[in-house]
C-alpha cells in the first residue's frame, strides 16, 4: 500500500481528548509496538486483523512512511 498524507479531516483534540502532540506521540509509540512479534501474534490471535476499523487505522498510519514523519521512527 502506498503511503498517504494524514487525513485533513482527522479528528481534533475535542474528539480525541488529546492534543496534536499527544496524538503524535501515541501513534509513534503504537508503531513501535507493531515492531514486536509477540504483540503482532497477540493481535492475530485476538482477530484484530479481521476488524475493519483496525485495518483502516493501520492504513491511516501509513503516513508515517513519508520522510517528514519517518525520521521519527527509530
UniProtKB/TrEMBL annotation:
Gene3D superfamilies for the chain: Mediator of RNA polymerase II, submodule Med31 (Soh1) (1.10.10.1340)
Annotated GO MF terms? transcription coregulator activity
Q: InterPro entries, from UniProt?
A: Med31_sf, Mediator_Med31
| Gene Ontology biological process terms in this record | regulation of DNA-templated transcription
Gene Ontology CC: one annotated term = mediator complex
Q: Which family is this sequence assigned to?
A: Belongs to the Mediator complex subunit 31 family.
Cited PANTHER family: MEDIATOR OF RNA POLYMERASE II TRANSCRIPTION SUBUNIT 31
Q: Which protein is depicted? A: Mediator of RNA polymerase II transcription subunit 31
Organism annotation: Chlorella variabilis (Green alga)
